[in-house]
Structures are given as structure tokens and as C-alpha cells.
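Quick one, T. Sequence first:
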Amino acid sequence: MSRALSLALALLLGALLAACAEPGDDTASSASALSPAAYPGTPPEPAPLSALCSWPLVSDSDVLNVLLPDEAATYWVAALPNLPGTRLRIEGQYPQARYFSFNAYSPLLASVDVLTDYQIAPLQAGSNPYRDPAAAPGAGYVAYVLPEPAPAADQRQPNALYSGQFPVGLGIELPANPLQILIYRIYLAEGDTVGGVPLPTLTVETADGSQALMTLDLSICTPLVPPGLLPDLLSEAMRSQSPPAAVTALFSTVPLPVSSSTPTMQRSYGLLETFRSSMSDSLGFEIPGQAVTATVGANLANNLDNAYLQAILSRDKGSMYLVRGKAPKAATVPAQAPLGNAEVRYWSLCTNEVLSQRFTDCLYDAQVPLDADGYFTVLVSDPDQRPANAIAENGIGWLAWGALYPDATLLYRHMLPSVGYAEAIQNIPQGTPPETVMGSYYPLLAYCDRATVEAAGNSAAAVFAACAARSTDSPLP
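C-alpha cells:
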């Protein structure tokens, strides 16, 4: 595509989308090639276009709480057309956070590609804290989004994210992706939601980097739903309140066919496959169709650096349950995984509503109490039914079920496992029982009640054993 046509398309885009501010001229750290080097000499000026907000959507626990988010993360969303003959330049600084990444998605929110913190070479050698634990946050980097399919791993350009694929399920891909959805994720940011540095600036430029067509900068505009505009009323109510007794009684009489009385956690491939595998557990036989359900809707808005176990539970089987398994060793500084001696960069447990996939409550690795053997035990219930001995001092964590939710999805995530951690969720092949790969790291589930928990005493292992014996003869960790 000629430079003139690229400019015309960018002008059309600027006319179609709502403008947020005038273009800036702070492009001194721009880069002209797929490398961490800066522009030689004076960078080209952006064309005289209206500048769009770079990240018009940001997650929050009430308005944009969908698609199984993690409470410890903030998600910034941008949407741009994939214009032939152009690329998207990302200029940012390494935040003070456990993790950050850029994920590219199709218009159907199918995961396409990921560029992760430790993979991004800095402008100044040795200044990426996700590679070098001695490096301080705040150093600069330049990365790119290319509107083409991802090549083989050994053919990838440095600091490049590829957005050209358009998977639609069942192994079918459309020949081109017309619209790239870009999500910037930050986990456990320190100081503020962006880790003490500005949000990355996005610039649409020609494919050779010789001309900047449009700069998108959030520093001079606000997202469509400004952070902190609304209090987290719904999420806080669902977490802190208990349902009335009449509602709980109603829920206990309405069976949910996709929930088993002896629930198990399965590798998550999306909502359809979760329903199929959970219903198989409930009915006692394997429902065919995994080849379809594990691909249609799979990886919907997923972070490609994460893998998940998931289970559906329902109040007709009980309004309290426990989960127990051996905890992986999480990184205390980002460079420890996947490049160091930690087993995973991060792990967490979240309770979610099944259909909307809103999170109700989450605990991440450092928040989860462990017993002397390195096992976690987490109890899920309504606040007014929390047993007196379900406390961290006894090695038992607690999560809210969610007032007025008749069902719950429990989601267990592993992020960026190190090569030596064979028991990671990422290593479970499709169709393989996860316990055969994870061993003692595989979390077991058991419904329970307050009286059983409190009668079992102050040992997390004894509490789980009592609850498991109450409902199943499953082996215990």
C-alpha cells in the first residue's frame, strides 16, 4: 500500500472514531525498525490528525467485570483497524508490578498472540527488571504490533506482537484480521494501577517506520468509563452480604444439571467445554463433543500466558465447599519465573458467577495461607456461614460465594511456569485427566457444612479430610 493511501485510511479512521485531544509531539523515543534502538536523529512528526485515546476501556469490578478477570489485575483495552502497509508502535516504561503483557485478539475476542514483559528488550541494555532482578522499574522500551500472522518462533521479529490471525473455531481461520483488539494487562501494580509509570503511547505509522500517521495518548483524555467514577457497589455487595434464608432455601431445591455432587477441576478451554465436562461429571458418563466445545469459544479473551482449571458448583449441592492442593512456588520478584528458580510467576483462585463470568472474590499466591506441608486450603461460603476456624492462622483461606448467585465457577490460574515445573496447568494435554499431570498439585474439591468444619478442629488437612469423607471417598492430599 502506498504511503498516501495509508494516510487516507488513517484520516478516515480519525473521522469515524471520537477524537479525544490534539496530537502530541513527544516522540523523541520512537523507533523506526523492529529493534530496541531509538530513531536516529530527529523523529518524523505525526501527521496533523486528531489523536484518539490510546486505551479507551479499562476494567473495574462493577462495570467491566466480565470474562473471568482476576481481581489483582487491571486490563486496558484498545481497538484499531489492521491497515496494510502500517504497524502500531508501542512506547512505554517497565512498570513496578508482578507482571505485564500485551495480548492481541480478533474481533471475536479469540486470543491471537502475546508479547510478555520479559520478552521485551529495553532501549538501554540491562534495564528490564523482568529479566534482570537488579534493574529498577521505569526504563523505556519500544514494541510493535504487526498486522500479519505470527511466524514460527525462530522467525519472530524482536519486540513484536502479531495481530493478523482471525481464528473462528474448529481449526478454521479467516484470511485476515480486519480489527485488532489490544489488551494491556498489569498484575499487582505497585503505587497505582499502572505501576508508577505512564500508560504506553500508541502510534500508527508506516510499515517502515518512516512516517507517524497518528499518535494515541491517554495522558490527555480519559477512558469511556473513567477509573473510580462509580463505587464498586455491586461487587462489594455480592462479596460482603449473605442471601436471605428464603433465597438460600430456594436455591437448594433447584437442581443445576451442570454441577456434580462430587465436583472436580478440569482444564479450562472456555465456557462451552466447561459446561460439557461439568455435565459429564454430573451425569456420570462422558458427553461426546470435546473436539467442538474445546475449540468453539476457546481462549475467549484469555491471557495466553495463563492456563486455568475450572469447576462449576451449585447451591443445590451445598452452599459451602473447600479446595485443597499443593501450592506452586510463586515468584517474589518477576525475574524468578519463567527465567529463574520459582515454579510460576503468579497463581490465584477466584470465585465467579457462571454465565456473566464476573469475579466475586479472589486470592492470589501471597494471600493464600499454607500449612506446614505447603498445601493450600480455601473455604468458599457466604459470610454469615463462615466457620470460626476458617482463618489464616489455621492454614485456611476464605472466599465469598456471592450473595444471590445460585451457582459459582471456581477458577485456578497458573501464570508463566518455569521449564522445570512439570506439574503446571499449561502442561496438561487436551483430553488428559489433569491429576495425572499435576499429581499433588492438583486441587481437590469437597462440599461441606459449617458444623463439619468446626468439629474438625484447627488443622487444615483434618478439616478437608472431614469434608471429603462427608461427601466422597476421593483420595486426599
